[in-house]
Amino acid sequence: MTRKEFLQTSAAAAAGALLVPQTVFGQATENAPIQEISALASPFVLAPLPYAFKALEPAIDAQTMEIHHDKHHAAYITNLNTALANSPLRDKRLGEILAAVSAQDTAIRNHAGGHWNHSLFWALMQPEGKTATKPQGALAAAIEKELGGWDACKAKFAEAAKTRFGSGWAWLSVGADKKLFISSTPNQDNPLMKNLVEGVGTPILGLDVWEHAYYLKYQNRRADYIEAFFNVLNWSVVEKNYAAAISF
Ligand code: MN
User: Fold this and answer.
1) For a FRET experiment, which of 53, 73, 80, 91 has its CA 20 to 30 Å from that of 108?
2) Coil, strand, or helix at residue 176?
3) Which pLDDT belongs to residue 155?
4) CA 114, CA 123: separation in Å to the nearest integer?
């Protein structure tokens, strides 16, 4: 291999290494999506969805997916890059930004959270019927032991999602004690924001309950949207996130 060929190969490898986490959210690597997302660095970019806008119908309609991804998620990223321009957090990875952000950094709090949260949300879903409808393996065992089984866990998660007043997210996370817990946060807050939230941990499953996530199809019927979400939830991704979260 000549030096020129070596340099070309190295440059291609380096470019590939940079591109992978920005585009596939872990689907083509050994890392869990939560690791890929937390490792993202500025300038942040909008990755394409890993499926078509209409792929989640009838649970989530194509128009909602297109607006949610191409407008809402895109805006969080644009605003995050702007907010970081003069911030000491600008050279941090996305996960480090969430861990460090304070109540005074309103723009970074909202938009870094928006980028992290939506990146997970897209990775968690897939067309109906492509995976198990319940958690399996080590995650199922932990849910049984720590949350009283899947039915109880699902009911508690749905309740957290239903009762989040206004806009926010419901979460299934792993705490510092390595145990699962369910919580909800307002706006774009995230359990990784240890300076800001009550339930601090590593999220492995999150559900967006902002009206922009469901209003075109479900209007005021948030409970129906929550139920439909479980039909398109990719449990293998949640299990991968769980394995990563308990090893941190
Ligand atoms: Mn959203």
Assistant:
1) 53
2) coil
3) 98
4) 14
